[in-house]
Amino acid sequence: MIHIDAERCINCMQCVKVCPFQVLEGGGGKPECIRENLCIQCLHCAAACPREAVSLDDLNGTFQGDFPSFSDNFSDQIEHHLLTRRSYRSFKSDVVDKNIIAHALQTSAWAPSAKNDHPTEWIVVSGKPFIQEIMDHILSYVDETGISPEIASLYKAGHNIVTGTANTLILAAAKTTAINPSVDTALALYNAELVLQANGLGTCWAGYLTRMCNQIPSLRQLINLPEDCQIYNALMVGYPDQEHYLHIPNRKKQPAIHWIETATR
Question: Rounded to an integer, what distance in angstroms lies between the CA atom of residue 224 and that of residue 220?
């Protein structure tokens, strides 16, 4: 439950103004939590409070940490980071530091999520032997069913289109009953990916792996995926090897933008 420290509160009502579901009201001159059942625990109220007077149950309302200020050209820097993001499929054999992975996945908690649901659960596969075991299940399935035969043919030719040469895989799982699991997991994974690439790691979205993890019962069992969960997105991760990108590629297809504006009279 949202709690407001009366001794710290200065009755500025910023918490009331930013609450998306009008959980808080200030009719009596002080903010009060009157619709607790509608609270999605987004903590906009805590983020807007100038006196840090808001808490959630026994949790401090705001994240405590020291962060550098944005530089004057931050907008240019983040645009450059977005435009230079590439998909890497060839990786060195070096083991990825677990702390880098953990930090990236922790930052994903601040990605947008439907009604602040944040349903994503992470499965991190580390090590070539286990990844090869995953591939063995996939290759057997392809051989038995004939589904996605290009996986097997390219694999025999020395080209793994499922996991590349990654020694780390990140699987974004969620319960199928979540409010919007496909979008929420994608947003969370994209947040994590941007942090990983900023730390010098290469990544590639693994669509084949995502589908196979859900379709193959033995593979679901191998990664301990509960029956009520599904893998919605996956990422290959590692230190890039023999992939060096010097330029930003052009995009032939530009985004279609349809403006709807109030007609001037």
Answer: 6
Q: What is the pTM of this model?
A: 0.92
The reply to whether 70 falls in a domain is no
Task: Kindly state whether residues 196 and 85 are assigned to the same domain.
Answer: yes
| pLDDT one-digit tens code per residue, 29-85 | 789 899 999 999 999 999 999 999 999 888 888 888 778 889 999 999 999 999 999
Domain membership flag for residue 209: yes
Residues 190 and 117 grouped into a single domain: yes
Q: Which amino acid is at 18?
A: V
Number of domains in the chain: 2
Same domain, 94 and 212: yes
Backbone angles phi, psi at 162, to 5 degrees: -90, -50
Token representation of residue 177? 């009953």
Torsion of CA 42, 47, 53, 56, to 10 degrees: 20
pLDDT digits (tens, 9 = 90+) for 9-29: 999 999 999 999 999 998 777
Q: Domain of 28?
A: 2-60
* Whether residues 116 and 224 fall in one domain: yes
Report the CATH number that the domain containing residue 181 is assigned in CATH: 3.40.109.10
